[in-house]
Design goal:
Length: 454
Amino acid sequence: MLCRLGVRPHSTSALASRAPADFMAILAYVNFKREGYVTSYASDPVLALGAMKVWYELKHGLAKYILPQLKNLLLDEALDTGGVGEIGEMVARILLLLAMDKCVMGDKDFSQCYHTIGQFVPVQDFLNVLTGHEEMSIYCKGMYNAEDKRPEFNEWCSKWDGWYVGFTHFVQLQLEPNEDTLWFLLGRQAAGIFPRNQYGADLLIPMFKKRSNSRPVGGETTRGEQEEQEVLMMLIQVKNRSPVDGGFSRAATEKLCPWFVFGKNSDGNSSAGKSTDEIGGDPKPLSSTDVRDTIRIYMNVRGRKSDGKFIYATTMKDNLKPKKKGNASEVKEESQTIGSQAKKRAKIESNPGVSSVSSVSEEEPVFTICLRLLNRVTYPFLSEDVASMLSNMVESQYDPLGLVEGDLDYRDEDEKRNKDVSSYAKLSLTATRDKLLQNARKALAYAPGDKEEE
């Protein structure tokens, strides 16, 4: 599990000393008192595929054994996740990995997939699995119906024909990504995790398009072969907000624009980590990528009450970088950025007749795929028990009462699935749900205040 999620144990946890011997982690350092062990996982597709086999080889093993153990490690703070706020992001990584695995395996059991080697799959197939192969509603600002944008959305979707995506695990990104980073991730069949507490996107998934049929899709690529292919990315924002998803509009638009994610803060530092300029990196910045050449996904992993799956339509005007006045160098820099965007788009755009960035209408629609609830309606590829376990993990991280309610939900569902063999059947008769909730509320008395409404 840890090698696929890109997570390491806390150096002082008991798991850190066991990870190299028992779980194939790499021992990077032992402190001089031998009280701390710095371990990590290499970006190894073979190790990730081995972990994938463990996920699926035992029927219901993910829900019954692996995810409950992961939850215990999280609640015990044995894993270096960056705080409770990162648990939702970890759940999002699990969702994306499960969707990718579903694309590769289809409806077959893992034992029937004799050639599961982390294949690249069409981008459209991945998006269809992630969103459920169904037509989603389109909304604009204020959550007003925007079905009139359906033709433009379908045209935008059609541009991803011939594009491929594939990842078996996530790796931590320390430096600001560039095109070389995307090719590296594709070669390792990995997706990226942005540095903690950065603004904008949390996860990055590279995708590519072949210009020729000289080689099959997949495998390592040389620099010469890369020039015969095109590379772009998906940017993913993850939130754990309930019941109100505050700041949604800006998070799903401006904060998922390449210029925002890879741009410079007021202190000159990149919001996506150290600039590659500091280490003599590739001069091709991802900040110049056109927002229309990026697949943006907004995920909120809290809540299970109703469907929360839709397309959010905004305009180019809502996604353009704010113009700065009075500084000639900044105006020149912005002009150069627009010019590079136009050149890049002219190279990438496969549909004829599309205008360049410099001449595009500010009213042209831009789309974001929004998945705002964690349930089987939003993610149909999940089984009932996996969906329940993942929801239980994110609902218990902030609220102790949420931990109680989530555990009771899991107990009720376990009893329904295993009426005759459940070990909790007799307990549920004596310790009823209402009784346990009442006792928990008394013990977890909250100070008075206004409850946030949906």
